[in-house]
Amino acid sequence: MFAGIVQATGQIVRVDELGFGRRLVIEAPALGLDDVAIGDSIAINGACMTVTEKTARTFSIDVSAESLSKTAGLDARGEVNLEKAMRLGDRIDGHLVSGHVDGTGIVHALEPRGESVLFVVEAPPELARYFAYKGSIAVNGVSLTINRVEDIVRAGQPAGCHVWINLIPHTIAVTTLKHLKPGDRVNLEVDLIARYVERMLGAAGLSKNG
Known about the structure:
The protein is α+β, with helices and mostly antiparallel strands and 210 residues long. The chain has 2 domains: 8-84, Elongation Factor Tu (Ef-tu), domain 3; 103-200, Elongation Factor Tu (Ef-tu), domain 3 (Beta Barrel). Helices cover 16% and strands 46% of the residues. It is globular, with a radius of gyration of 18 Å.
């Protein structure tokens, strides 16, 4: 489990093709790798990955073809957000994040608002129902609060939603969100609570109808 609080950014410095996937080497001295062991979990742009090798400055992960098909930013060199898995007893300053990316969204807008930035992400139809005003969302592994949700209808059919977020200067400074531009794909993870609520309501409806 993670909290969606980015602890450092790192650089994917090497990408090797595997049979069905890729091996990434990530340079991350700022993360502090002294307490990282082979087999530990680290969230990379919000995707939980297993450390397979490490040096004093780098660690390696293997990304499956399935993970590559469901995520963005794990297939080429570039800067990534990093977070180590939480320990029992750690403070949760963001929200509970599993590191299992639910899908990708598209950056719709990035507009200055005083010292902050208005950040609008277009979420796909299959995820739109999980987002709510003042709820939580993880974007590229960053825990963020939703300020507004606008459903999208195209040709008379639901076409996802726009999720409005305010990025404060600190978040912009310490994460890779500062590099985004309209049209970029980002990793999205919905709030765990929303998943459980949907499941409970669905099960209750089946029980009542049965």
